[in-house]
Specification:
By secondary structure, this protein is α+β, with helices and mostly antiparallel strands. Helix content is about 30%, strand content about 25%. The chain is elongated and about 100 Å long.
């Protein structure tokens, strides 16, 4: 542009008409065909990638993904267990059937190049085929509350042999978890409780469960309460009834849909955390 301004500027004393250029047909065809070809190549690559992403493999492994504030849980119906980690076999298609228990979440593993919203009341499906083994993280990509930034879980892509070894181990653990406390341990994992409450004394969004049962719990109103079965059941069904001191700003969702048996199983599990 600067060259054209200098080379074709009006010169002093020049009163003639400017040169009339009708155009260059070959050049115009060239700069039309070349970009069109480039766009078509990218369109083909995009269409192929989309078709590959949506390709249905009847032998795909199913994983039920449960999202809640602010944790993930993964159920493997073919193997009969639930995990807080998403472990996948390499080079095998996986069908993720995803549900939200509360608000909109979004399943996102950046390295997988896919992201899918999870809407309450709907089952959202996503198909992926991991091709590189390694450790990744699934993150929530939709703002879902005060602890949204911490809503992540490990994702491990393993060889088929390593995956089957892990699945077999988890099946054994699940089979042994048929006692009330065992069922309670599985329930708190699948409900996302461990995203806010630790079982080793470490500080998370909510109070730790280590040594909780039978202890004296200070409340936000200055009183204390014994962490017996009645208090813990009330805290599960109506978390705002008695708020623990120091956690006034953390809003715990109510689990009013839990049955009496499920609550009893959770309480049995809490009693083991000494």
């Amino acid at each position: 542009m600067l060259y054209s301004l200098a080379a074709f500027r009006r010169k002093k004393g020049d009163t003639a008409d400017a040169e009339h250029i009708e155009g260059n047909t070959k050049l115009e065809i060239g700069w039309t065909i070349a970009p069109l070809f480039i766009v078509m190549v990218f369109a083909y690559m995009g269409a192929y990638s989309l078709a590959e992403t949506r390709r249905v493999d009847p032998q795909a492994m199913i994983v039920n993904v449960n999202a809640s504030q602010w944790a993930w849980s993964f159920e493997y119906p073919d193997y009969g267990f639930v995990s807080t980690e998403l472990r996948l076999p390499k080079d095998k298609q996986v069908l993720l059937r995803m549900q939200s228990k509360d608000v909109i979440h979004s399943f996102w593993v950046p390295e997988f190049r896919v992201k899918q919203d999870i809407v309450p009341g709907r089952v959202t499906e996503l198909r992926i085929t991991p091709t590189l083994d390694g450790a990744y993280k699934v993150r929530c990509a939709e703002i879902c509350g005060t602890s949204h930034a911490y809503m992540e879980s490990p994702v491990l892509v393993l060889s088929q042999t390593d995956f089957m070894a892990w699945a077999t181990e988890q099946q054994g653990i699940a089979a042994a978890a048929q006692t009330p406390e065992g069922k309670g341990a599985l329930l708190v994992k699948s409900s996302g409780c461990l995203g806010c409450h630790s079982i080793d004394g470490s500080k998370l969004v909510g109070p730790t469960w280590l040594g909780l049962f039978g202890s004296q719990v200070p409340l936000s109103d200055g009183t204390t309460v014994t962490a017996d079965e009645a208090y813990l059941a009330e805290s599960i069904l109506n978390p705002s009834a008695k708020i623990v001191a120091g956690f006034e700003t953390q809003a715990m969702p109510a689990f009013a849909t839990l049955t009496e048996e499920e609550i009893a199983n959770i309480l049995a599990y809490l009693k083991t955390l000494k």
